[in-house]
C-alpha cells in the first residue's frame, strides 16, 4: 500500500491548489473590497494551508481506494472520481456543520470550485499500471 501514494498525493495537491485558486477568484469577483483589504500573500498562504490540513482525510481515503483498485487490477477512473467527489463533498459538509451559515450563492460557487478541481485532478493524471510479479515472457 505504501508504494501507491504518488497518484493520490498528486490529486490531493492539485485539488488543494486549484480549489484555492478558484476560491480566491470567486472571492475577488464577489467580495473585491475584502480581497483588496488583505494582502494577497498574507491571505492566500494561511487559507491554502488550512484547506490542505482539512483535506488530509480526503487524501487518505483516496489513497486507500486507489491502492485497493490497483491491487485488484481494476484501474477505473470512474471509481476514483466518485470516491474523490464523495469525500470532497463530505469534507465540505463537515466544514459547513462546524461553521454553520445559511447557504448562499457564494458558498455554492466555492464548493463547486473545489468539486471541479478534484474532478480535474483525478482525470488529468494517468493511473499507473502494476505489472504482476513473477510472470516472465
The rough form would be described as: elongated
Strand content: under 5%
Q: Helix count, per DSSP? A: 6
Rg over C-alpha atoms, rounded to the nearest angstrom: 17 Å
Low-confidence stretches: none
Portion of residues in helices?
A: over 70%
What is the H/E string? HHHHHH
Query: Mean of residue pLDDT?
Result: 76
Major pleated sheet:
none
Class from secondary-structure proportions: mainly alpha
Tell me the span between the first and last alpha carbons: 26 Å
Oligomer: single chain
Number of strands: 0
Secondary-structure blueprint:
Elements: H1 6-30, H2 32-37, H3 40-54, H4 56-72, H5 77-98, H6 105-124
Describe this structure in words.
- The structure is a single chain.
- The longest helix has 25 residues, at 6-30.
- The chain has six helices and no strands.
- The radius of gyration is 17 Å and the shape is elongated.
- The protein has 137 residues and is mainly α.
Concise account of the structure shown:
With 137 residues, the chain is mainly alpha-helical. The protein is 77% helix and 0% strand.
Which labels suit this protein?
single chain, 137 residues, mainly alpha, 6 helices, 77% helix, elongated
